[in-house]
Amino acid sequence: KSDLTVDALKLHNELQVGPLEISAGARKDTQMEEESDERLSERTSGTFLSGLSDCSNLTFRKVQRFWESNSAAHKEICAVLAAVTEVIRSQGGKETETEYFAALMTTLEVVESEESQAAVAYLLNLVMKRVPAPVLKSKFSDTTKAFMDVMSKQASSDTSSALRWILSCLATLLRKQDVSVWSYPSTLQAYHGLLSFTVHSKPKVRKAAQQGVCSILRGSDFLFTDDALSHHPATVTTAKFCIKEIEQAG
């Protein structure tokens, strides 16, 4: 007996193919490109960053290619990854997804610049998809609070990079929780926070929130168990939110 069915695999593939996919010929279409007024840094040639080029965790393999980019956002991602890797190594870590998750969450709470916050959020979005579910369940409360804090601060920001990656992280976190967690008011509050950004003024933020909502309603882990519910517990509140928005816009 296995949950690995053709339909489940198809859904998994659909959920994974999102804004993180970067092709060489479509760089200007990638979600990691900043707004048109983004300042591009000068290309730095022949530079070696320990902790980046020799990072052993395959989750960040695509990040290593960013070093050849002259995008300031890509450079910042490389710098953050290198720094976090060095911290993990200095403490005798094995560079696992869980270690990166813990280190990046700590970093998210202390970085101040929007550029660094966006870089941390992007790396978190990459690694959280591979962090063991029990870890995300045990750290649900603290992680949700950290994400909600960033969301509230970034809601009216001129840039949207950090916000859209945090929304994706929150969706991943909610998708991994047990069905019982959805009876808690705090869970619904976090989910409503995600829902509210589906009508945000910035298109990239709206898209990240909309993709997150769809992935939760269609791809939460407990929907693929033998005794799965016919629909997600948040379906009703989602429908009410949509009806309210339609009525207000009408």
TrEMBL record:
Gene3D superfamilies: Leucine-rich Repeat Variant. InterPro entries: ARM-like, ARM-type_fold, HEAT_RRP12_N, RRP12. Residues 25-44 are annotated as: Disordered. Residues 63-218 form the RRP12 N-terminal HEAT domain. It holds the Pfam family HEAT_RRP12_N. This is Pre-rRNA processing protein. It comes from Characodon lateralis.
